[in-house]
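Section 4.2 – Deliverable D4.2 (structural model, holo form)

The reporting period included a commitment to supply a predicted holo structure for the target in complex with magnesium ion. Inputs used:
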Amino acid sequence: LARNLDHLASLPAETADGHRVRLWVNTGLMADVVRSLERGAEGVGLYRTEVPFLLRDRFPSEEEQREIYREQLQAFAPRPVTMRTLDIGGDKALAYFPIEETNPFLGWRGIRVTLDHPEIFLAQVRAMMKASLGLDNLRIMLPMISGLGELETARKLLERAHGELVEEGYDIAMPPLGIMIEVPSAVYQARELAAHADFISVGSNDLTQYLLAVDRNNSRVASIYHALHPAVLRALQEVVDAGHAANTKVGICGELAGDPGGALLLVAMGYDVLSMNATNLPRVKAALRAVRKADTEKLLQQIMGMHCPEQIEETLRAYMKRIG
Ligand code: PEP
Ligand code: MG
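Output (structure tokens):
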């Protein structure tokens, strides 16, 4: 699979028997954009807006944000770009907005910060919507959602911002609003959340950390951070089933989507969108094109019957070796 990946950019992302999957990219910097387009990305599944915030020494103004977001949206248009609202806290600290906590991953993170500071949220979504003027490819996504109330509050703020822009004379449609599923409580409410969201996308990095209670950045426990842990796989399957039961498209934008073996399992589960670093896209596409959907389903069924993460990893490794 590692050979001749360049020609893949123009070939469709589909299995050997024609099952199409959307392979999108995760971005943050403009450099990611250039690389992504070269590799034939069909959209952005996660634009991490905290990246430009981390590179500055103060909050960027609404106008500065508009310019940054416009560049991303314009470069990908007409392809969809999923912009995530600010996801700070946890391991991502802004020097000009210090958060001191003993347990930051269980603390003031993601949507919790921006709902407590609606002025940050409003400036951000106003800038995104203004940036999308005439392009119509913006989707907005909320990080660290743990219950329906957060989604409802955020939607009200978004509607307020949209209404104000329309009053100011901007001719902009309401963008689709989606959420990340990365907190275990969201897995158990996935059906209701999906019914109230325009799309859902699993953040498997955080979801794995929270399901297994293993800090994703702590090297001492790295050997028990298993992206393919049976409990994680079960949660991933439940989320996609819940989303589809609510007629909502389901994506994933954690690292697992960029691992060719992991990607095949996600396709078998029924994921509609896999979003990954551009670097991994050609390898994932090559793996996808090398298999039939029914084969991935057989593999998934076999793996779902296993209880030991190491056995799952070994089975997947052997399978990937077999398909070349
Ligand atoms: C995730 O948690 O899987 C995710 C995509 O978000 P981040 O890695 O930015 O926390
Ligand atoms: Mg996350």
